[in-house]
Amino acid sequence: MSSIAITADTLNDTIDQNDIVLLDFWAEWCGPCRAFGPVFEKAAEANSDIVFGKIDTEVERELAAGFRITSIPTLMVFRGGIIVFSQPGALNAAQLDQVIAGARALDMDEVRAAVAAQEEDPAQA
């Protein structure tokens, strides 16, 4: 499966209805974004159980602002509706595979417990 365009209208449902979602914040004019695009697409083809979404920061300015995107490309990974990875910069195929493997390997009970503890005591962040 190839990547899909994500908009403000589709973002929440995409994250809520899928276990793992990778989001690529990009823009057409961005050279590193264009270099990362084929890497992202190839990973999407190889991992059909994961949703790979692309957010055009020129079109979806409010989404980019809401996620505090200051550099593109930025990759975000959601697992079980929780952001588990966020990093600006283009990744190569091996790095992206490592991020995907890391997201798959997460113990989500531990992640949810850590999020709950942080919400109870923000000083733990």
TrEMBL record:
GO terms for cellular component: cytosol. Residues 1-105 form the Thioredoxin domain. It comes from the Bacteria. GO terms for molecular function: protein-disulfide reductase activity. Keywords: Disulfide bond, Electron transport, Redox-active center, Transport. The keyword Signal does not apply. Belongs to the thioredoxin family. This is Thioredoxin. It comes from Microbacterium keratanolyticum. The lineage of its organism: Bacteria, Bacillati, Actinomycetota, Actinomycetes, Micrococcales.
